[in-house]
Amino acid sequence: MYEKICEIILDYVDEPEGGLTPETRFIDDLAMNSLDIMTMAGQIEDEFDLTIETSDLNGIVTIRDLVDYLESRS
Questions:
Q1: pLDDT, average across residues 27-51
Q2: 2-73 adopts what CATH topology?
């Protein structure tokens, strides 16, 4: 799942593939804005056939947070 999430993230940021780690932060490290995050969340929902609650996005800061959240929902 981690690898697929990284592939999706790379659609939204200009970061070398090896530059992403589980500790990478969406806003602080990748300079993603709220629109980027919402659009990415929609793509992830489609890819994994689940719903990410908008209120839950506030607690998802790192790639690890996102992977853990998705694993708990599947």
A1: 95
A2: 1.10.1200
Contact 7, 48 (CB under 8 A): no
**How many CB atoms lie under 10 A from the CB of residue 51?**
10
Cα gap 4→62, rounded to integer Å:
15
**Is the pLDDT assigned to residue 44 strictly greater than 70?**
yes
- Listed residue (12, 28, 35) closest to 61, CA to CA: 28
The encoded tokens of residue 42 equal 């929609």
Tell me: pLDDT of 6 over 80: yes
d(CA 28, CA 37): 13
Identify the band that residue 17 occupies on the pLDDT scale cut at 50, 70 and 90.
low
Radius of gyration of the chain (CA): 11
| Residue ranges covered by each domain of the chain | 2-73
Q: Which position has the token pair 């659009």?
A: 39
